[in-house]
Amino acid sequence: MFDDHLRDTATRVQALLTDLLQPAAQIGEVARPERLLAAMRHAVLNGGKRLRPFLVVESAWLFGGDKDAALRVGAALECLHCYSLVHDDLPAMDDDDLRRGQPTVHIAFDEATAILAGDSLLTFAFEIIAAPQTPLADGARTALVLALARAAGLGGMAGGQALDLAAEKQAPDEAGIVTLQAMKTGALLRFACEAGPVIAGAAEGDRQTLRQFGELIGRAFQLADDLLDLTADAATMGKATGKDAGRGKGTLVGLKGQAWAEAELDRLVDAAVELLAPYGARAETLIGAARFVANRKN
Amino acid sequence: MFDDHLRDTATRVQALLTDLLQPAAQIGEVARPERLLAAMRHAVLNGGKRLRPFLVVESAWLFGGDKDAALRVGAALECLHCYSLVHDDLPAMDDDDLRRGQPTVHIAFDEATAILAGDSLLTFAFEIIAAPQTPLADGARTALVLALARAAGLGGMAGGQALDLAAEKQAPDEAGIVTLQAMKTGALLRFACEAGPVIAGAAEGDRQTLRQFGELIGRAFQLADDLLDLTADAATMGKATGKDAGRGKGTLVGLKGQAWAEAELDRLVDAAVELLAPYGARAETLIGAARFVANRKN
């Protein structure tokens, strides 16, 4: 049931992204940087689970938000997520050759194209949200641009990645790890859950609740990731594993042990369930998402 | 008189950018990626002429736009311009060690930090425009986000940079050069001139006129740049081909000669003057900007 929902949204997101990045798309200028566009497609149209768009779509549905608007904001968020993967994979960053079993963008194309493809996907995310084709009230549109910029920039994902690079030289303490992860992986997941009530024009209290829900999901996501990194092999993950610990990066699992992490995951899911209890049965799919994030195997 | 105006705006832009990027600035999270912020400051607080913010400020003034809003949109545009310089300077791109006599960001810091600093400056540009501190009507705010994203992305600056990389392998013809330059350097200058009427809520016709003015400025800027590249290298290296030509990049100056380029510059300035004639004496400073761009010596 939950899996059907997730797969269904992934199919619709894939179709929309394919349309947005189609080679024949009018982009306002005569010349077409075809190779750059091909690199963007390689980065985005890769069969991902589309978890972030799914959270946008489901959190918007909870408050009766426009479905088309939610799907397009979800697609924008996915572009932004994919930009971060392309830049993280660069030789100067994590230096990864494979992602989901495919060559990363700088391997399939070249490093300069990978830098520009990431830049263009980041920019495209804001274009999608600002475009009139995305049916949003002006106030909601501005709120989404601001929230997305804050989630992605210095105080969010990019800042978290910078702290992560620093962590390779000096391992952070527990509080440092929590903050780093809240920025690096948490910020976009918080945005995904918060975006729904913003799209729907829901009350500020609902926005705060969904933001807290996103916070819990983000922490569960990272813990599950760290546990997988510890236990799974490269075949399951489609990327190199055991790498974070090997580089001396601190993780909460490394610091506090596997048993603690598994108990903490249960606690996070329970807290997420409790948080959405006031919304009753309508919140079932979002609660399913929390369980999915905590129990995922790749 | 014009120089005073330009210097005056540069001083105010520098003060605002210093404030926006101050180390103590609250960025919404506990941890502070200080090194990343330092790299952003290195990229932005470099004593540039701030031509793009100047064009925003003057084009807004022409239509009675809010001065503070114009200055902040100008600062956002400068952050975006500086992001493009940081990424262009990377080893995988133009591989430049020096900019304005200072080490480039990847030299002063490291390559990973330079990539993230560029990413964060690009993101910060959208944050500044979307932030409530920038006094804009919601409609104008959305229009600016959309126009800036289009000027910066696949169909604008980043796309132009991709075409420029391709031009090193296969020299484009005249039409190809014109398109490449309209995207790579023209798009942000067009945005700068168009932003003023948008900030002021001026009529669509005024927006179109200022966009055309920006188009002319952009072409003049690039021609002046190519002429400088030619003469600067000729002086130091005793040969008639500059750095771009030496790399196999086509320029209009290389294709059509120095005499043509100098006449074309005059023609572009005349066209700019004529375009703004209906605005009378109020447009004097913007016309001064067109002359400045055409005649600049560095």
TrEMBL record, chains A, B:
User: Which NCBIfam families does the annotation name?
Assistant: FPPsyn (NF045485)
Q: Which cofactor does it need?
A: Mg(2+)
Name of the protein this chain belongs to = Probable farnesyl diphosphate synthase
What residue ranges are annotated as transmembrane? none
Please give the PANTHER family that the UniProt record associates with this protein: FARNESYL DIPHOSPHATE SYNTHASE (PTHR43281:SF1)
Which PROSITE patterns does UniProt cross-reference here? POLYPRENYL_SYNTHASE_1 (PS00723), POLYPRENYL_SYNTHASE_2 (PS00444)
Single GO MF descriptor: metal ion binding
Q: Which GO terms describe its biological process?
A: terpenoid biosynthetic process
**According to its UniProt record, which protein family does this protein belong to?**
Belongs to the FPP/GGPP synthase family.
Instruction: Give any Gene Ontology cellular component.
Output: cytoplasm
The protein's organism comes out as Allorhizobium taibaishanense
Keywords assigned = Isoprene biosynthesis, Magnesium, Metal-binding, Transferase
Which residues, by range, are in coiled-coil regions? Answer: none
The protein's matches in InterPro entries, at most eight in alphabetical order, are given as:
Isoprenoid_synthase_dom_sf (IPR008949), Polyprenyl_synt (IPR000092), Polyprenyl_synt_CS (IPR033749), Prenyl_diphosphate_synthase (IPR053378)
Superkingdom of the source species: Bacteria
Q: Which SUPFAM superfamilies match?
A: Terpenoid synthases
- State the CDD domains in the record: Trans_IPPS_HT
